[in-house]
Amino acid sequence: MWSTHRVVLGPDRVVKTYRPGHEDAREREVRALRLLAVHAPGIAPVIPEHGASRAGELTMSRLPGVPLRGRPLGAPELDAWAAALQAVHTALPPGELAAQPLRPGHQRAVAERLRRWYARPADRPRPPVVRRALDAGRAWLAAAPPGVTGDAPEPGVAPPGVTPCFGPGDGNAANYLWDGHRVRLVDFEESGRSDRAWEIAEITEHVASWVPEPVDVPALLRACALTPAETARLADCRRLLALVWLFLLAADDPAHPRNPPGSTAERQARRLHALLES
Question: What's the confidence (pLDDT) of residue 2?
Answer without folding.
Answer: 41
